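Fill in residues.
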């Protein structure tokens, strides 16, 4: 069963693996030349702006007392040029960093989505789909600002701090040391809240994941919700999950907001001390060498000193937030692909159609076997029907033929070739599969049918639709085959969705055809017509048909009654009726039900 639900938090790691940041660095590496140039531009601009307080000091201490207006004009021109260069550099940085950041986001999202395409059915069986979606969209988006601006800003601000300290030391060493007294206090604050802050963002990401999972589930099940008037109850559940998300968010940002005010308070206190002692020393109260220009320039540097520290504190907050998302993103990318090509796997030759199960056992969960040492052989062109009670393992058998899951033990052979030793793509491209869930994609009916064979012509699509009796209802729609259908085919009836899915499977022209409840939503009249088209289609193909309607499988070469992990009976329709076993009971129960229904 599913090991996670919308109301169950995902497992949290106690410690963050720094290798995750190294992996993120691998995504940044292709852009290191561009980033290096941007950093150079920004550092050159920063270094030049450091001269502006020096200009002020010169103007106040030398030019104004001397009345040198020419020198004052010269410093004004220099200041304007530096400000213009700084503005152009900032504009260039914003444009380049956003481009780099979005490219990295695109690559991250591509990698996680590409990996999701290869993960087996078991991965999706175990998780609400909303929790998967939030990793591909929300979590990756949350890294955007960090990647676009955070890294370059951090590097440039660290260098700026060095520049500022050099200029401050050149002006006055005592005032510089006084200013630095606030740094140990800030470091203590960071150490104090670091672990709680990361934990808070981990919890917030879990609550966001839970909320997203429930929203996705509610949207998919809206028809059931309204049919059973569950709107109020579902709203209560949503309110509970949303409140949990809100509380976790408020707690997480509370720690983030501690950093900014802490920097501001420490900055204000140290600046106050600099003013008090600076003025005291400037007026001769025990220290000489401080002028109005020196104090003015130094206080300008103090502001510049704490600005990058504030930016670094913001980056630290963003980094801790990003870490909680990186864990989930890389956790998904690292999810093992259990069903994959073995080393040295060969291409599956053109399939003839012989299928053999040799002592195949399978379980979705350890200790709960679904199939137990199943054995049977289907010859090329045979049609095999699989019947039995719900949960007996009928769908599991056909899923194993397509290798959607790995068997626990035993082997499955197609044309005497072990399917575990061939590439999955070469195997599945030669099969036509119509699942019990008739999924319709957003787009035209033509595109939905062509999904089974992207190389098929329009004429091929129409021919497949006619074979499964879908052509007539398609042509009755406003734009025929070009009619747009919504995601999951909400504007189509259940029977129409199944017919389109059937045409999609048939268009692939497979040597092995798997039909899982293919006629469950088709009315009796359409089913009779459909059976006529299928007789020609099934010739030369090995087919496996799962159906609760026993009337649809009478002509199968072999009918297998599956229950309790084993094949209890097998034979033709007539043979199994004559045996008066489980199949006979199942058939007679349906026959009696139809008689009662007709009598009514």
């Amino acid at each position: 069963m599913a090991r996670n639900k919308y109301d169950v938090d995902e497992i949290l790691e106690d410690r963050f693996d720094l290798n995750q940041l190294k992996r993120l660095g691998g995504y940044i590496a292709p852009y290191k030349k561009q980033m290096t140039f941007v950093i150079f531009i920004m550092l050159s601009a920063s270094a030049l702006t450091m001269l502006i307080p020096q200009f002020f000091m010169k103007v106040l201490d030398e030019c104004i007392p001397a009345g040198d207006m020419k020198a004052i004009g010269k410093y004004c021109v220099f200041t304007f040029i530096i400000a213009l260069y700084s503005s152009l550099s900032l504009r260039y940085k914003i444009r380049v960093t956003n481009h780099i950041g979005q490219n990295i986001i695109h690559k991250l999202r591509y990698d996680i989505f590409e990996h999701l395409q290869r993960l087996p059915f078991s991965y999706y069986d175990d998780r609400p789909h909303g929790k998967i979606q939030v990793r591909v969209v929300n979590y990756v988006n949350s890294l955007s600002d960090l990647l676009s601006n955070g890294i370059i800003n951090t590097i440039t601000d660290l260098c700026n701090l060095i520049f500022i300290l050099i200029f401050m030391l050149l002006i006055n060493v005592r005032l510089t040391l006084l200013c630095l007294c606030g740094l140990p206090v800030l470091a203590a604050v960071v150490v104090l809240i670091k672990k709680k802050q990361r934990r808070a963002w981990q919890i917030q990401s879990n609550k966001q994941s839970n909320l997203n999972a429930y929203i996705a589930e509610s949207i998919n099940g809206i028809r059931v919700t309204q049919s059973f008037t569950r709107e109020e109850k579902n709203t209560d559940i949503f309110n509970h999950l949303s409140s949990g998300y809100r509380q976790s968010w408020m707690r997480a940002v509370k720690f983030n907001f501690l950093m900014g005010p802490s920097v501001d308070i420490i900055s204000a206190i140290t600046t106050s001390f600099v003013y008090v002692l600076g003025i005291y020393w400037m007026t001769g109260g025990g220290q000489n060498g401080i002028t109005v220009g020196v104090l003015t320039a130094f206080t300008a540097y103090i502001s510049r000193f704490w600005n990058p520290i504030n930016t670094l504190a913001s980056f630290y907050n963003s980094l801790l937030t990003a870490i909680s998302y990186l864990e989930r993103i890389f956790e998904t990318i690292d999810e093992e692909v259990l069903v994959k090509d073995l080393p040295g796997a060969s291409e599956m030759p053109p399939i003839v159609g012989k299928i053999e199960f040799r002592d195949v056992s399978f379980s979705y969960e350890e200790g709960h076997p679904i199939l137990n040492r199943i054995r049977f052989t289907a010859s090329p062109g045979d049609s095999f029907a699989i019947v039995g009670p719900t949960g007996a393992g009928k769908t599991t058998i056909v899923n194993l033929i397509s290798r959607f899951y790995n068997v626990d033990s035993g082997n499955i052979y197609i044309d005497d070739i072990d399917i575990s030793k061939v590439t999955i793509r070469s195997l599945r491209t030669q099969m036509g599969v119509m699942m019990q869930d008739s999924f319709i994609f957003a787009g035209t009916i033509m595109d939905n049918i062509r999904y089974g064979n992207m190389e098929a012509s329009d004429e091929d699509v129409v021919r497949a639709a006619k074979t499964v009796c879908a052509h007539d209802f398609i042509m009755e729609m406003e734009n025929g085959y070009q009619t747009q259908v919504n995601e999951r085919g909400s504007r189509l009836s259940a029977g129409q969705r199944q017919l389109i899915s059937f045409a999609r499977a048939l268009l692939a022209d497979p040597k092995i055809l798997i039909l899982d409840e293919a006629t469950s939503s088709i009315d009796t009249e359409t089913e009779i017509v459909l059976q006529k088209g299928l007789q020609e289609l099934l010739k030369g193909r090995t087919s496996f048909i799962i159906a609760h309607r026993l009337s649809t499988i009478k002509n199968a070469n072999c009918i297998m009654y599956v229950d309790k992990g084993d094949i209890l009976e097998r034979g033709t329709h007539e043979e199994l009726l004559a045996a008066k076993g489980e199949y006979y009971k199942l058939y007679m129960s349906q026959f009696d039900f139809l008689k009662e229904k007709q009598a009514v």
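Residues 520 and 549 are 7 Å apart (CA to CA).
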